[in-house]
Amino acid sequence: MTYCDYITTITGDQLSLHKEYHDNHYGFPIENDDELFERLKINYERIKILKQNK
Predict the structure, then answer these.
(1) CB count, 10 Å around CB of 19?
(2) Domain ranges in the chain?
(3) Residues 8-18: what's their mean pLDDT?
(4) How many CB atoms lie within 10 A of CB 15?
(5) Considering the entire predicted model, what is its pTM?
């Protein structure tokens, strides 16, 4: 399996979390409304953090 270049910058728990997300969630369609809402909230929070760090 191929991973993005970002994976070379992380280690430990973050690495296993990234691989688990990549292998089981990223790119798969979401059919559950609760899971879709959860991902929307997570992405919204991620954007807020990125804007704060600029």
Answers:
(1) 14
(2) 5-52
(3) 88
(4) 14
(5) 0.51
